[in-house]
Write a structure and sequence with these properties.
This protein is mostly helical and 164 residues long. The chain has two domains: 5-78; 86-163, no CATH class. It has five helices and two strands, in the order βααβααα. The chain has a two-stranded antiparallel sheet. Helix 3 packs antiparallel against helix 4. The longest helix has 22 residues, at 11-32. It starts with a strand and ends in a 14-residue tail after the last helix.
Length: 164
């Protein structure tokens, strides 16, 4: 009779789950510092709280995925686990840092969002960087105009935003 061994939980979803839960805590703490000067409707902190909740749910789902199928098996080589694509992760993180740097150093929302879009598309394997940069810029302009003109919420401005 073959001896059965317990499969260890998958490490990648555990790491991603920890990152998502940490992001949920950061977003939640940041939302708790938003000053509410409104006496009607919902607070400006409502959406960050929704985002924090969704991040926490995604984090917990990653933990469930890591331990799912945690059952005895005879051959550890049959355990389904794909290696993480760290180049893709690095490109997405670079896109986030590009957005943060653009906002922090006066480049504005549109430039940073276009870079984030293009780098994220590259991380998914798309090779048309300039086309993705243009698509990201168009999407960012639409988002900027909706927030500034329809919602009267100011997004970080740079030289491109000042044209509108």
């Amino acid at each position: 009779m073959k001896q059965k061994t317990l499969r260890a939980p998958d490490r990648v979803p555990i790491v991603v789950g920890i990152i998502l839960l940490a992001a949920a805590v950061i977003v939640g703490l940041d939302a708790s510092h938003i000053q509410s000067g409104f006496t009607y409707g919902i607070s400006p902190a409502a959406i960050p709280y929704v985002v924090a909740t969704l991040l926490a749910v995604l984090g917990l789902c990653h933990f469930i995925a890591a331990f799912r199928g945690w059952e005895p098996t005879a051959d550890p080589r049959t355990w389904p686990s794909e290696p993480a694509d760290w180049k893709a992760v690095a490109l997405m993180v670079a896109g986030l840092f590009a957005l943060m740097a653009s906002v922090a150093f006066g480049g504005g929302f549109i430039l940073g969002s276009a870079l984030l879009f293009a780098l994220t598309a590259r991380s998914f394997g798309r090779k048309a960087f300039l086309a993705d940069l243009a698509i990201g810029a168009v999407l960012a302009v639409v988002i900027f105009l909706v927030f500034n003109n329809l919602l009267s919420l100011t997004l970080p401005e740079g030289p491109i935003e000042r044209l509108f």
